[in-house]
Known about the structure:
Oligomer: single chain
Number of domains: 2
Number of helices: 3
CATH class of the largest domain: Alpha Beta
Low-confidence stretches: none
Structural class: alpha/beta
Amino acid sequence: MAIGKVPGSESDLDEEGIFAEINITPLTDIFLVLLIIFMVTSSVIADAGARSGMRVNLPKGATKEVNPGSKDVTVAIGSDGKMMVDGKIVDGTELARLFAEAKGRDPSTQIIVHADESTAHGRVVSVMELAKTAGLSRLAISTRKAR
């Protein structure tokens, strides 16, 4: 609220009055800054590696699309062989435990492997074997579209 002369009272220069005027320019500036921040962070969150927590260079392939559901488990394997699930680095025993929990929640859980194209083939096979040992038979390997 601003304090100043009441509009239209120039004849009485000594009297001051209160008038209500809301300046929305600073409020608009704040909202625009917040909008930009949310747009930038949402594009980072929506990145392809956000589901598994690790950015990997997927091999090229031309197969059908598999859309991960909320119950599916995505395992990322980096070029160094480290495995990550939901942004946490896991080892083989922890991965086997996660697969067993997923099987307990829903036997039709799908395991999606995001493996870097330079990852050793044996590492991918070992993850798939852990899933099969836990009783999960729906397995998928992520690829990027061949151009």
